[in-house]
Structure to design on (340 residues):
């Protein structure tokens, strides 16, 4: 999930602004601006380097390269890349943080999968 | 007689930056608490550290991360006092930072924050920390000794063992500034022991650990 996806991902490009609730059953790549709520119970979210998400997020896995403000509830793995700026509480089974990533909030690692409720 | 091994025949490889480490009696004491209790709430006031998050969550505890020194550099905090002297607005600072419920944390890692933070914020910050800590909770802070100069390197600390810390120089751009403006924070002052005791006057107990690197570790109990 390093580069903007092609076929099997839904893509929100960097000029797109969405306000409201997003839910789906496919992986999502956000490089634009999303404000509201994102729910992808069995799928992954990638916030691209230009992505700016202000939402409570519920997903199977998340990779963050851009900005995310909100509660993150993930049943598997959260990955914060070096350019990530995250403000909010993170609940997950596993977390990986690259040097340079910024996190302001709580980290709660749950051995059982976190209940996917945002 | 003392012999030195020659290295003239060895190929000169690229210099590998050595990781600075230090033993920490304070972290040693906190580790003992972490090992005998479950589900503790830890507040790390340094820069985001993957090592610290891994260390504490790996033991089943919750960790909150908040880089208070970086937040204190926000230009919007700059005001003038009644005498026209530039100060930081501690009220605004505490409206936006350290916003937690009372008695929430079992452990607070303050690191070297009081030595590098603007003076007008230090006492209000410690008072707020007192409020958000549980009675009996631990706070660990590092203070330079008189031997330190204003150019003493500001380190961030990564826990990498029961009583071991890895040290990494802090360089960052203030909030709202481009990352090209990264610089090291400057040591603001050196506290005397009496000043440290006054700073933590409301806490139940205070313990000093003297180290060999011009640092005093201070472990206080709420």
């Amino acid at each position: 999930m390093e580069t903007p996806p092609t076929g099997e991902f839904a893509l929100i490009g960097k000029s797109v602004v969405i306000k409201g609730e997003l839910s789906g059953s496919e992986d999502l790549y956000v490089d634009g601006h999303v404000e509201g709520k994102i729910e992808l119970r069995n799928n992954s979210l990638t916030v691209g380097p230009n992505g700016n998400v202000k939402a409570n997020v519920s997903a199977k896995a998340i990779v963050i390269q851009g900005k995310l403000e909100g509660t993150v509830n993930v049943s598997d793995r959260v990955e914060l890349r070096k350019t990530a700026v995250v403000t909010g509480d993170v609940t997950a089974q596993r977390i990986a943080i690259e040097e340079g990533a910024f996190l302001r909030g709580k980290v709660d690692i749950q051995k059982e999968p976190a209940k996917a409720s945002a | 007689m003392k012999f030195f091994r020659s290295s003239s025949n060895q190929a000169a490889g690229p210099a590998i930056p050595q990781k600075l480490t230090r033993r920490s009696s304070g972290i040693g004491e906190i580790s003992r608490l972490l090992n005998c209790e479950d589900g503790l709430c830890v507040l790390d006031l340094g820069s985001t550290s993957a090592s610290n998050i891994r260390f504490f969550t790996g033991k089943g505890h919750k960790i909150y991360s908040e880089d208070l020194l970086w937040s204190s550099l926000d230009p919007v905090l700059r005001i003038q006092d009644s005498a026209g002297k530039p100060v930081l607005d501690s009220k605004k600072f505490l409206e936006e930072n350290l916003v937690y419920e009372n008695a929430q944390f079992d452990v607070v890692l303050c690191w070297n924050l009081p030595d590098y933070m603007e003076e007008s914020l230090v006492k209000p910050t410690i008072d707020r920390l007192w409020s958000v800590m549980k009675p009996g909770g631990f706070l660990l802070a590092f203070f330079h000794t008189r031997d330190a100069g204003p150019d003493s390197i500001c380190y961030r600390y990564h826990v990498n063992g029961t009583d071991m810390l890895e040290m990494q120089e802090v360089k960052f751009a203030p909030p709202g500034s481009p990352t090209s403006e990264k610089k090291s924070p400057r040591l603001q002052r050196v506290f005397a022991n009496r000043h440290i005791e006054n700073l933590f006057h409301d806490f139940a107990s205070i313990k000093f650990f003297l180290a060999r690197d011009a640092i005093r570790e201070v472990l206080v109990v709420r």
Observations:
- Chain B touches chain A through eleven residues (CB under 8 Å).
- The radius of gyration of chain B is 19 Å.
